[in-house]
Amino acid sequence: MKHKKLKIGILGFGTVGQSLYEVLQKSPSTSAVIEKVVARNPNKKRNIEIKNLSFDTREITESTEIDTVVELINDDIEAFKILKTAFENGKNVVSGNKKMIAENLQKIIDLQNQTGQSILYDASACGSIPVIRNLEEYYDNDLLQNITGILNGSSNYILTQMYRHNKSYNEALTEAQEKGFAEHDPVFDVDGFDAMYKLIILTLHGFGTIAKPKDIFFTGISGISESDIRFAREKGLKIKLIAHACKVPGNKVALFVMPAFVEQKNYLYNVDDEFNGVIIEGDAYDKQLMFGKGAGGHPTGSAVLSDISALSHQYKYEYKKLHLPKPPGVSDDILLKLYFRYEKPETIDILPLQTIEEQYVGPAFHYTVGTVKLADLLINSENLRKFVSFMALRNISKESIITHYANKKHYRQQLIPVD
Ligand SMILES: NC(=O)C1=CN([C@@H]2O[C@H](COP(=O)(O)OP(=O)(O)OC[C@H]3O[C@@H](n4cnc5c(N)ncnc54)[C@H](OP(=O)(O)O)[C@@H]3O)[C@@H](O)[C@H]2O)C=CC1
Ligand SMILES: N[C@@H](CC=O)C(=O)O
């Protein structure tokens, strides 16, 4: 295949932009030369001194020299404008901006078709793990059933530090920020937005389904307390923030993001710190685990480097699953067994429970374990965010995710005690 030397412009010179700059120096065989780097704040002190730094986006998007725009800024609205201008000016794009990508999937596909340009964004999901390209290329058949993964490195880092080293939530969050794992606004990480956007991207490449954020129930770890960690420890479990895309009957896929209690035998149990892990499950091959650093400048820089190299070989996403005769729709028709911890006893009245399996009423907090329809979580999400301090899937195995609850017989068979 023809191989082209790229002239790149890097937009954004923060954690990932600077790391890409360094990673590129370590890979002289990559066919790319940095023509220009653009950041926003001319008064900011930089760790790396470079000659070709400027503060005007147009010096990249409107340059006649640059053919590839590497967008690594922390502003999704601006990032979409940059993408559009770059395409209109005949440039390809590499990006790590999951919010911009997930919020605009259809528009991005249309723009690629209209302009003939392409965007690669493997860095947008799971940092250094090449999960998007694998879903696109290797799993390009009908066998895939579930994608289950730890997709947010910051939350995983915080949970690990709390569990393993008894650190406080705030201390662990500060460390995640200092290490360059967290987003500009860490609420994006700890309240599940980041994992939800990544799940949307993986669902497109895995199943051909374009889901909207409003279709996805998501919650994060910001309300976690020592009592939740104790609950997990006593039962030999760990808490992880997990995103799920599960194929359900009727050619549908159910999507949700929430903390979960994870047993030792699960592949994700030992995925700790800023590492991500994605279990890909399908007919014929059962389960496979992709594992690697999911956050941080250099791991993410390496994914960006790989996309730059792929562009130099004219690689583009074909969105193969999108062209299936009938890509799956989104379903909220599943039942989940959840743990809810709350402070006020009357909160039990707003929990949309189908069954109650365990309850604790104490002086400082209360918890209930019971089953809930995913559809009811979506409808009640505002109240749940307001009144429930922390919620988690009781177990990430089949006992806690029941996809056939409409079929009562199957439901009874599946709803067996987990411990
Ligand atoms: N950190 C990580 O581990 C990962 C991050 N990502 C994604 O990569 C992107 C960058 O993240 P990260 O490097 O951590 O973010 P940082 O906050 O560290 O850096 C952002 C950079 O963008 C620049 N910037 C912001 N707005 C503009 C603009 N309008 N024009 C030009 N430059 C601008 C900032 O300029 P200035 O320096 O002047 O303030 C800064 O250099 C985000 O989309 C993030 O979600 C993806 C995977 C992992
Ligand atoms: N903030 C993100 C960075 C990578 O996407 C995370 O913590 O996973």
TrEMBL record:
InterPro entries: Asp/hSer_DH_NAD-bd, HDH_cat, HDH_CS, NAD(P)-bd_dom_sf, WIF. GO terms for biological process: methionine biosynthetic process; threonine biosynthetic process. Keywords: Amino-acid biosynthesis, Methionine biosynthesis, NADP, Oxidoreductase, Threonine biosynthesis. Pfam families: Homoserine_dh (PF00742), NAD_binding_3 (PF03447). It comes from the Bacteria. Residues 377-419 form the WIF domain. Its EC number is 1.1.1.3. The keyword Transmembrane helix does not apply. One of its GO terms (molecular function) is homoserine dehydrogenase activity. SUPFAM superfamilies: Glyceraldehyde-3-phosphate dehydrogenase-like, C-terminal domain, NAD(P)-binding Rossmann-fold domains. Pathway: Amino-acid biosynthesis; L-threonine biosynthesis; L-threonine from L-aspartate: step 3/5; Amino-acid biosynthesis; L-methionine biosynthesis via de novo pathway; L-homoserine from L-aspartate: step 3/3. It catalyses: L-homoserine + NADP(+) = L-aspartate 4-semialdehyde + NADPH + H(+). Belongs to the homoserine dehydrogenase family. This is Homoserine dehydrogenase.
